[in-house]
Amino acid sequence: MDLIFAEATPPGRGGVSVIRLSGDGAREAAERLVGPLELPRHAYFRDLAQDGDLIDQVLALWFAQGSSFTGEEVAELHLHGAPVIARRVARALIEMGARPAEAGEFTRRAFLNGRMDLAEIEGLGDLLAAETEAQRKLALRGVSGELARRAEEWRALLIEAGALVEVSVDFADEDVPDEVPDRVFEAVAELRVRIQKEIDGFQAAERIREGFEVAIIGPPNAGKSSLLNRLARREMAIVSEVAGTTRDVIELRFDLKGLAVTFLDTAGLREACDAVESAGVERARGRARDADLRIHLSRDAQAVTDLWMPGDLTVRSHADDGLPSAGLSVSSLTGAGIDNMLADIQREVSGRIAGAGIVSHDRQRAELVGAITALDGLERLPAELVAESLRGAASCLDRLVGQIGADDYLDAIFSSFCIGK
């Protein structure tokens, strides 16, 4: 394929900038800048120059076709991290006939060359976006090919079952054992259980990948913005004695013992005084309803009845006022009770990710549901239709890993990748 290049490190000033090349002539292009690179997978310290003009001193290495990330010939130039150096090298590569890569194009080539399947690519995207330990661990399960291996096991069972059905159809008038249909149905029943287990674990895995939303709700001046600022350890929200200060939802991303949590500071829930506050209150109610968990915060620890859901926390604010409190109370001024509140939230959200599977994307879940649906009611079908249903389920598993139908998803997946990946 044609020669592409991109920075594999974030653009801008830094210690090191890595430019990656992939495609026909990657090694030759690098050698035109740094001189001979004899052995693959060996790093060489070289002067990088164009037409006798020294540009930088670099580390250079190359990977042979079939032994690289993309499956193509690949070269890397490790430069000093000055933007002007990266720009100068990019200009030199363009003059040699290379072109800048598109977003995710290196990974797209890895897929097209059979180095990665579609589920692994989705896992790689999740890994690049991971902010917490739980997200990292889940993403690595995807990158490692675990889902593809399971899909291949399931597909092998379907193929074996389909072969038994085909035998019963093709040799119906000959001496074929009567137990063949029973063996097929037993194998399908076992397979349905295994696939259904992954479907059942989808919601928990999706929550790990996307994170939890925790809405802080309550009446005006309950201390919601002060609590958010305390959690952020900086002033994110305006705190005022005047009721109705918060008009929009303010979000705080938080790593809660390895779990991604977004706290939402919402407008005080009351009868609004004007159209702007009314819109803020309505938006607050909508976000609170959609959140995974709500902190009902007030001076008297009263829940917002119409928004209460199982697992919510009722918290008394202003714990520093010296008044007795039977339940959970916090002080945004002193920090008292904050750790207890976070521990309660952690216990609640941790319980919701128990049994998380490896399937964490809607696309993946849809293909597994399609496979299950194709296997419904086989006992009532004639043998010819049983065989067709088994092939339909196998096709769903092929789409799961991108063996067929991948073109419909590639652009959407790679649009979130950086240029150098």
Question: What does this 3D model show about the protein?
Answer:
The chain has 421 residues and is of the alpha/beta class. It folds into 3 domains: 4-117, Gyrase A, domain 2, CATH 3.30.1360; 119-201 and 359-402, tRNA modification GTPase MnmE domain 2 (Four Helix Bundle (Hemerythrin (Met), subunit A), Up-down Bundle); 209-352, P-loop containing nucleotide triphosphate hydrolases (Rossmann fold). Helices cover 45% and strands 16% of the residues. It is built from 14 helices and 11 strands. A hairpin with a 2-residue loop joins β3 (44-50) and β4 (53-63). α6 packs antiparallel against α13. The longest helix has 25 residues, at 146-170.
Rg of Cα set:
29 Å
Total beta-strand segments? 11
- And the CATH topology of the largest domain? Rossmann fold
- The DSSP helix count reads 14
How would you name the oligomeric state of the polypeptide chains in this document?
single chain
Instruction: List the helices and strands in order.
Output: EEHEEEHEHHHHHHEHEEHEEHHHH
- Output the CATH class name of the largest domain: Alpha Beta
| Count of domains | 3
Let me know the average pLDDT: 88
Supply the CATH superfamily name of the largest domain. P-loop containing nucleotide triphosphate hydrolases
Gross morphology is flat
Low-confidence stretches: 238-245
Distance between the termini: 17 Å
Query: What structural class results from the helix and strand content?
Result: alpha/beta
Tell me the strand order in the biggest sheet.
3-4-5-2-1-6
Binding site for GTP: 221-226, 240-246, 265-268
Domain TrmE-type G: 211-350
Pfam family, one: MMR_HSR1
Main location: cytoplasm
